[in-house]
Amino acid sequence: MHVLLLTNPQAGLAGSACPAERFLPVMAAWGWQVVTRPTSSGPRLTAMAYQAAQDGFEAVIAAGGDGTLHHIANGLAGTRTALGILPCGTANDLARTLGIPLDPDAALLALRDAQRHTIDLGSLNGHYFLNVAALGVSAEASTMITPAQKRRLGQGAYYWNAIKRLFRQQRLRIRLITPQATERLDVYQISVANGRLFGGGWRISAEAAVDDRLLDVVAVEPTGPLALVCRMLRQRGGMAERLGSRAYRLPSCRIEVDGPVLVNVDGETFTLLPPLEFQVVPDALSVLLPSKKPAPEAGAG
Fold this sequence. Notes:
single chain; 18 strands
């Protein structure tokens, strides 16, 4: 197999980096032709993945987290080149969703006999995403996470900062336009999900899937912060069932806000100008999945 191995030296926790040297001897023993490139630049990841597809590589194997996969998927979308995943990030939500082993070495061994499948992508103003795009609490909380918190708490850093942010969060006034109606909402958060998990294992809803040709939209309307924290700590149900006052399953929607807004997309944070146009893009990305893969993780929420 002719593959490009892209490694992100900045992905994951301290001491858990995934250098190319960790994987190359195994792939060489399989007789694979491997070209490797290290970079932590999102635009370069996208450009290198796109060029690999143009050059006829069979797969781009990504050693990194959800942010790394996000950028690579934007280069591979709509091409015949498949994405292989070696989970080396903090959250690894796409790997959890797809049932890929979370140990990078086990994930590598699973790639040898992997099968090609197609999954949907979400689109936000023409830019693809794999898991979830969120406005409000989680977007604001993501800017509060420090490298020290990631090292000490891992995915718990997401929960800790989300809870802290709840006690200071201003209501976000939005207009949600769906194929059925237009609604004016005051929300703590609104999430638009293509995939199943976000934030290190938080499940968006009981029905969400990465290949169902639908987006799951969950709005969390204001209530007391303490009540929200208690609901977050419940053991059953996803975000839609535990926190969502409104939940929708639909192929597209539009969110309008007054002025620029912070949006967390697959763990990457962007400031975007409205309107925000969302749609699902069916069968947009080829991925390599273990031929005998474990069941997808149910998620923490």
